[in-house]
Amino acid sequence: MGDVVNLNAYRKKRAREALKKKASENRARHGRDRGEKRLNQVEQERATAQLDGKKRDRDAPGGSDD
User: Fold this and answer.
1) Rounded mean pLDDT of the chain?
2) What pTM was estimated for this model as a whole?
3) Could you report how far apart the first and last alpha carbons of the chain are, in Å?
4) Choosing a second label site near 62 at 20 to 30 A (CA), which of 6, 27, 28, 48?
């Protein structure tokens, strides 16, 4: 005869394995290491500084009066 299997334990084990597999896929898809996060932050700061540098002053002479 075969071994006795606790179906509740088997179901829980299968659910845990499915969660681990999904978590692993999410880490691969969305995970970034510290260097990538820092690079993205530096690029964002640079873009913001560039945009701020190109803004026009409303109080400057010859500017548009809205």
Assistant:
1) 87
2) 0.46
3) 90
4) 48
